[in-house]
Amino acid sequence: MPHPLDAAAVREWSAQALDALGRARETIDAINVYPVADADTGTNLYLTAESAARAVEAACAGEPTPAQAVRAMAHGALIGARGNSGTILAQLLRGMAEEIAEAENSGSGGQDESAGDDGEPLRRALARAATAARAAVAHPVEGTVLTVAAAAAGAAADTAGDCAAVARAAWSAARTALEATPGQLPALSRAGVVDAGGYGLVTVLGALVAVLSGERPEAPSAERTGTPGPTPPADPSPDPADGGCEAPKERPGPAYEVVYLLEAGDDAVAALRTRLDALGDSLVVVGGDGLWNVHVHVDDAGAAVEAGIEAGRPFRIRVTHFGVQGGDRRTDRTPAHAPGRAAHRAVVAVVPGDGLAELCAAAGATTVTARPGEPPASGELAQALLRTGAPEAVLLPNDPELRHTAAAAAEQARAKGLRVAIIPTRSPVQGIAALAVHEPGRRFDEDVVAMTSAAGATRYGELCVAERQAWTTAGVCQAGDVLGLIEGDVALIGAQAADVAAAVLDRMLSAGGELVTLVIGAGAPEGLAEYLEDHVRRNHLAVDTLVHEGRQSGPLLIGVE
Length: 561
What we know:
The chain has 561 residues and is of the alpha+beta class. The chain is built from 18 helices and 17 strands. Helix 1 packs antiparallel against helix 9, helix 2 (41-59) packs across helix 3 and helix 13 packs across helix 14. The longest helix is centred in the N-terminal third of the chain and has 24 residues, at 7-30.
């Protein structure tokens, strides 16, 4: 029996889409030849869907409306979008969410009850999704996921009936459009494959059909089918965008992929689009309501990031270098090596702030930035491990809550042949201590033992601000109180950050110590570092102090070695 597109259906859709993309990931990666043959479109779509599914699960802890559930799915995809295809998928979902929300707010839901037609909201949602995705790409080109989305929307518009019928029509038209993509793009025709991003969208629509109708559609063919027609002529001046445009084959493409989330207003983003379009290609900017996901290929990665800084507040910045060979990428925070050679051993560190990311990168680590309330998924960590290109890797989770996520990521990477060890770091300061003794030239086991020992010898503390009244191990705190934590437990409650921090330091140093590490966060009061340095100098002889600007959300992280 057909199922309506309610919140429960959205939840099941997000879960089934993730499962389907997981099964199809290797196939999609293998046919990823456009615009850069980097074999990661399937992985990027999977990671985007994983973030979307987590957001829907969180929203369904309450009783969301269909619009709220789709909005959660779109928001999760936006903040977790990876690559061009993931970014465009996020915009497709956002377009659907906006249309369903407007129909819900109108009170009618867009349904024609007299005709027994409850598919109108989905028809309009698919149409708006295709339009929004095309508008997000700077220079759209046919034969990509945008073409597949347009075909799905067109078929949906011409189909009467319930949501299940509309979804079936959209999926069928999308699959047909996918099969035609090799005849529209020279790169696909030469490789004899269909568009990877379009394949991913057909997979996501197939999951929607399964949820609404109970029927599980067949997976599409990844190879060109039918009698090959003439190879389309090469376009002398196309622009790249996965979902949008192709890099000219007669010149090398841009050297870097730059991706970041951006908090900015509409006017600032309009100016940013113009500036980034002049800097590079493959430009996709999606989002709205003050939060955007920016994706561009450029030769000057610094200029692309600076443009974001001028427009607003960029965060979760990822810069990927397109290697000498297709598919060989590394992040700019990975230590540089001779062309074509990966490091023998890599370190991947999860960090809560851009300043900490810069610090760990300088020490030779590849970093994954975690935002408060948005921890990285296991797939994201596994991808970071694999992208180092090293046969051996060490993972620093730097958070006790990431223990299981890190273990799952390590297993995924090991299944791909990578040797991985997890250092059980519970705080970024323990990660800093482990990095300080890291020696890639040592035997793997010896290096892991040394890093684990250094992390274990580092006691850690931090300051945070209470958000509400609560019971703690140090008594009852009120909203706005400064909490001093030692080894994860609340040890002190006070009103002034400097006083609480000094007291925490005294307690931690009472057991001895030679080095204090202070990581100053974005919420730290002015002069806190200088005050604490002076406090240690006056009260704890022969103890050195190191200060780092971490720019994490909390005021202060403390390490004592």
